[in-house]
């Protein structure tokens, strides 16, 4: 997707992302959020950055091509996340594969973050702080 095919508002968001800002993109269904996210992904990849897309649900992952996105639970190896937070973090920090994955990611995109619990956001933050 070229920048020319984006609306002026979408192009502005892409330019903001290119300048290194953290973003929260909101809007109603059909507003073009996934179009913007895919443009950001493509731009980052063209610049040699490793991008990971995580989603709050498997349904949210379906707007991306196969393999481009994973659920938060899957990406971070949290499973059902039904054990105490300290145990989850301890288990995840001991996972060398996850450690390698997290240290290789330059840009993290969390699709449908508003559908995640505060606990899940805190867990992910703690994992990034521990790596």
Provide a descriptive summary of the structure in words.
This protein is mainly alpha-helical and 131 residues long. It is 49% helix and 10% strand. The chain has seven helices and three strands, in the order ααβαβαααβα. It has helices at 8-18, 33-46, 58-61, 72-75, 85-93, 96-104, 118-130; strands spanning 51-55, 69-71, 107-111. Strands 2-1-3 form a three-stranded parallel beta sheet. α1 runs parallel beside α2 (33-46) and α5 (85-93) packs parallel to α7. The longest helix has 14 residues, at 33-46. It is globular, with a radius of gyration of 15 Å. The relative contact order is 0.15. The mean pLDDT is 88. It catalyses: ATP + H2O = ADP + phosphate + H(+). Belongs to the helicase family. Residues 6-124 form the DNA helicase Pif1-like DEAD-box helicase domain. GO terms for molecular function: 5'-3' DNA helicase activity; ATP binding; hydrolase activity. Its EC number is 5.6.2.3.
Radius of gyration: 15 Å
Q: What's the total helix number?
A: 7
List unreliable stretches of 5+ residues.
none
Query: In whole angstroms, how far apart are the ends?
Result: 33 Å
Organism: Desmophyllum pertusum
GO molecular function, one term: 5'-3' DNA helicase activity
Catalytic activity: ATP + H2O = ADP + phosphate + H(+)
EC number: 5.6.2.3
């Amino acid at each position: 997707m070229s920048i020319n095919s984006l609306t002026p508002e979408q192009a502005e968001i892409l330019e903001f992302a290119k300048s290194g800002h953290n973003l929260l993109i909101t809007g109603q269904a059909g507003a073009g959020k996934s179009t913007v996210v895919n443009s950001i992904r493509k731009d980052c990849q063209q610049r040699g950055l490793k991008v990971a897309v995580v989603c709050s649900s498997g349904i949210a992952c379906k707007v991306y091509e196969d393999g481009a996105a994973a659920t938060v639970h899957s990406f971070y190896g949290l499973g059902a996340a039904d054990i105490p937070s300290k145990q989850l973090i301890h288990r995840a920090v001991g996972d060398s594969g996850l450690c390698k994955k997290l240290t290789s990611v330059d840009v993290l995109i969390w699709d449908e973050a508003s559908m995640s619990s505060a606990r899940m956001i805190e867990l992910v933050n703690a994992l990034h702080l521990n790596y």
